[in-house]
Amino acid sequence: MKLALVGYGALGLQIEGMITESFTVSTTVRFDDHTHRSGEPQAFPFASHTSDEFKDFRFYVCLGYKHLPLKTQIIDRLVELGRDVPYFVHPNAYVHRSVTIGAGSMIYAGCTVDRNTTIGRGVLLNNGVVVAHDGSLGDGCWLGPGVTLSGHVTIGASSFLGSGSTVTNDVQLGSAVTVGLATAVTKNVAAGQSVIGNPMKVLERKLTLI
């Protein structure tokens, strides 16, 4: 397999490790401006990831939680160009056979995804995430380590849920929602809102992710 990583910070290094542990990789290229300027071998400018020179590579988009809409846009463009942009499920995760997973999504070790759940494109479930039955995660969602979603939870595109947060049954989160660390989400959250705490508090300003 020829591996292409779009973006290469700490997340890219992490994803590269999981992929190379799971597949036999013959060649790895990295599309990252900083890595390219540093003169590292097999590093190319970020914008060159759409070049036909790399059309027979398998692509993983490694942009972090500050770039969720852009991540989805890049995945869509790569799919449009006919590139191989698979999802990845760690061997130590459990995903029910009825679950559907979109292109470019990543499911880390220790995750559990129960039946009748839909996962969009470019979603990242970090270590130990639990998604109960009949859930729906929109494109580009990011769930930090230890997040728990109860049954019938719907999350809109490009939303971020901080580590250890919990969402109770039948709750809907709109798009671009930000949920702070260890928050107990017990009611619906409108698009673009930020919430934090237990009991949950809706913030007047968007929560800044560092």
Q: How do the helices and strands follow one another from N- to C-terminus?
A: EHEHEEHEEEEEEEEEEEEEEEEEEE
Q: Which residue ranges are poorly predicted, with pLDDT under 50 across at least 5 consecutive positions? A: none
Question: What class do helices, strands and sheet pairing give?
Answer: alpha/beta
| Number of helical elements | 3
The structural domain count equals 2
The largest sheet is: 8 strands, mixed
Into which percent range does the helicity of residues fall?
A: 10-25%
Distance between the termini: 34 Å
Average pLDDT for all residues? 97
In order across it, which strands form the biggest sheet?
A: 5-8-11-14-17-20-22-23
* Strand count: 23
Report the CATH topology name of the largest domain.
UDP N-Acetylglucosamine Acyltransferase, domain 1
Shape: globular
What Rg do the Cα atoms give? 17 Å
Question: How much of the residues is beta strand, in percent?
Answer: 25-35%
CATH hierarchy: architecture of the largest domain: 3 Solenoid
CATH class type of the largest domain:
Mainly Beta
The CATH homologous superfamily name of the largest domain equals: Hexapeptide repeat proteins
